[in-house]
Design goal:
By secondary structure, the chain is of the alpha+beta class. It has one domain (2-105): 3-Layer(aba) Sandwich (Aminopeptidase), CATH 3.40.630.30. The chain is built from 5 helices and 6 strands, in the order αααβββαβαββ. It has helices at 2-6, 17-21, 24-30, 88-102, 118-124; strands at residues 39-45, 48-56, 74-79, 107-112, 128-133, 136-142. Strands 1-2-3 form a 3-stranded antiparallel β-sheet. A hairpin with a 2-residue loop joins strand 5 and strand 6 (136-142). The longest helix is centred in the middle third of the chain and has 15 residues, at 88-102. The protein is globular.
Length: 144
Amino acid sequence: MLFEAFFWNETTERPAFEEFRKHEAFAKLLAGWGRFGDRAVVAEDQGTLIGAAWFRLWMPELHSYGFIDVTTPELAIAIAAGYRRKTIGRALLEELIATARADGFAALSLSVSPLNPARHLYESLGFQKVGETGSSWTFRLALG
């Protein structure tokens, strides 16, 4: 699913998955998964993974584009191309937001290209733009 998150734009050329797995950004996002602050939810269709949403805490010296601070988990989501725009993403995000609230987090963050149609989903759930990094916007959702 992380591959789908990186290559959400269907007009962008995708590298072979095996090549992508060697990319530093891919490895960084998965390294040490399972530590405090790492949570994920998945969607399946007859045993096939069709979507996932996850968050994790980052540090100033090691983070992703949506980093705000060490107490705010950064969220990411991916839905397989044939399943997009069918409310699966909304359901995953709502469940993950509920999980973050139950875990006691005050907010969630994420990064999104302003061209990504998912931006409208984030905004409809209450995420607000708080910054920009490169070609991505940083969004924050207060959970309190």
